[in-house]
């Protein structure tokens, strides 16, 4: 048998101890094959029907991913990378590895009929699962996306904006603090833990560069600390999903065993029926240990837990007042009405679960459920920045326009050529009947951004950092 040289011998020896011997050859074989590409349609921006049209237009061959209704393996002839397609730029799909779609689906499954009301994504960047969770929540409720690494926050934020996510607050903490800062605050928690990445080697040839047993052991300790914190931040009756993209027992089953032993009120939610064929990866405990050869994907591990209900005797900690230093004030009823009037060109805005908040000239839209958490922790960014007030005008931000613009009353549907020019930062001619103010430029029903009407011209208001000079694929 040929052993791929990229895998360290010590790792293969460990695999031999846990993988049935008749599967080893298949595992090693698949390990040398390139990873299939996959995408997830973002239901906040597109319907299945829209995406069928898009895939026909581009001649994409899609194969349904069994565990994720919005996920598909994709084959196409085009030379361009998927990230250059218009539908990627407009957040209609997210490039996400198939097995990485499983943890949010497992969390929804564990919740049963209950809503994903308040959710913590404890290790969130670059946001594949945060954007997936926001879509599963239909942008409702409250989603806290935390990332410890400062350099990864920017990418996370950009993905939230691109995908039209509005129900999320960003935090920048070591995940170990949540148990203390937000005890029993969340209905559901996803801990997609930092790990040794043994499952990612088909995509990343450097995956084993820093691999060592010592690194595995150290990560296993971090994961225990994080799952401990997640347990404490979970409401009684709440659900927790723990996932990694690694294959060893120390970072997976042993971390789960630690949780169950330390907290007897935690029980496993059996995932062996999560989807048709899941039993192939199911462990005796009810976790999914996905070897790359099972579904021709990356390796992954997913476990779900339920925290026992308890009688609520203590006073709910959320009745705390806003901290004195919180720089926002809630807009008064009159101000809320005025803001809605400014935003009339967006049509009927459904903001029933949100409120406008003000900071100097800035106007923000915060989901009400998120503001309940504000007294307890410092948030970097909450909800969506609506705009800034300049004299009598409210200058609306790009992020608000693309999250709420598809239903705008004052909008213009662009052709493919116009949309391409728009992404290149060019001004367009005003072919609409609108005479003044801003309008939302849309392509195939999705908002691209704002343009200012100046006579017979539309002045492009796409933020500079989003302007693409080349490499766009519209057809
Ligand atoms: C597996 S990645 C998360 C991938 C992400 N959930 C997604 O689907 O796009 C793990 C993340 O945990 C972050 N991280 C590392 N140590 C952490 C800690 N102590 N607390 C919170 N996050 C941490 C890493 O920077 C990394 O972004």
Automatic annotation (TrEMBL):
<dbReference type="Pfam" id="PF21150">
    <property type="entry name" value="YebU_pre-PUA_dom"/>
</dbReference>
<dbReference type="InterPro" id="IPR049560">
    <property type="entry name" value="MeTrfase_RsmB-F_NOP2_cat"/>
</dbReference>
<dbReference type="InterPro" id="IPR001678">
    <property type="entry name" value="MeTrfase_RsmB-F_NOP2_dom"/>
</dbReference>
<feature type="binding site">
    <location>
        <position position="174"/>
    </location>
    <ligand>
        <name>S-adenosyl-L-methionine</name>
    </ligand>
</feature>
<dbReference type="InterPro" id="IPR011023">
    <property type="entry name" value="Nop2p"/>
</dbReference>
<keyword id="KW-0949">S-adenosyl-L-methionine</keyword>
<feature type="binding site">
    <location>
        <position position="192"/>
    </location>
    <ligand>
        <name>S-adenosyl-L-methionine</name>
    </ligand>
</feature>
<dbReference type="InterPro" id="IPR023267">
    <property type="entry name" value="RCMT"/>
</dbReference>
<feature type="binding site">
    <location>
        <position position="147"/>
    </location>
    <ligand>
        <name>S-adenosyl-L-methionine</name>
    </ligand>
</feature>
<feature type="binding site">
    <location>
        <begin position="123"/>
        <end position="129"/>
    </location>
    <ligand>
        <name>S-adenosyl-L-methionine</name>
    </ligand>
</feature>
<protein>
    <submittedName>
        <fullName>16S rRNA (Cytosine(1407)-C(5))-methyltransferase RsmF</fullName>
        <ecNumber>2.1.1.178</ecNumber>
    </submittedName>
</protein>
<dbReference type="InterPro" id="IPR029063">
    <property type="entry name" value="SAM-dependent_MTases_sf"/>
</dbReference>
<keyword id="KW-0808">Transferase</keyword>
<feature type="active site" description="Nucleophile">
    <location>
        <position position="245"/>
    </location>
</feature>
<keyword id="KW-0489">Methyltransferase</keyword>
<dbReference type="InterPro" id="IPR027391">
    <property type="entry name" value="Nol1_Nop2_Fmu_2"/>
</dbReference>
<dbReference type="Pfam" id="PF01189">
    <property type="entry name" value="Methyltr_RsmB-F"/>
</dbReference>
<keyword id="KW-0963">Cytoplasm</keyword>
<keyword id="KW-0694">RNA-binding</keyword>
<dbReference type="GO" id="GO:0008168">
    <property type="term" value="F:methyltransferase activity"/>
</dbReference>
<comment type="similarity">
    <text>Belongs to the class I-like SAM-binding methyltransferase superfamily. RsmB/NOP family.</text>
</comment>
<dbReference type="InterPro" id="IPR048457">
    <property type="entry name" value="YebU_pre-PUA_dom"/>
</dbReference>
<dbReference type="Pfam" id="PF17125">
    <property type="entry name" value="Methyltr_RsmF_N"/>
</dbReference>
<dbReference type="InterPro" id="IPR018314">
    <property type="entry name" value="RsmB/NOL1/NOP2-like_CS"/>
</dbReference>
<dbReference type="GO" id="GO:0032259">
    <property type="term" value="P:methylation"/>
</dbReference>
<feature type="domain" description="SAM-dependent MTase RsmB/NOP-type">
    <location>
        <begin position="27"/>
        <end position="308"/>
    </location>
</feature>
<dbReference type="InterPro" id="IPR031341">
    <property type="entry name" value="Methyltr_RsmF_N"/>
</dbReference>
<dbReference type="Pfam" id="PF13636">
    <property type="entry name" value="Methyltranf_PUA"/>
</dbReference>
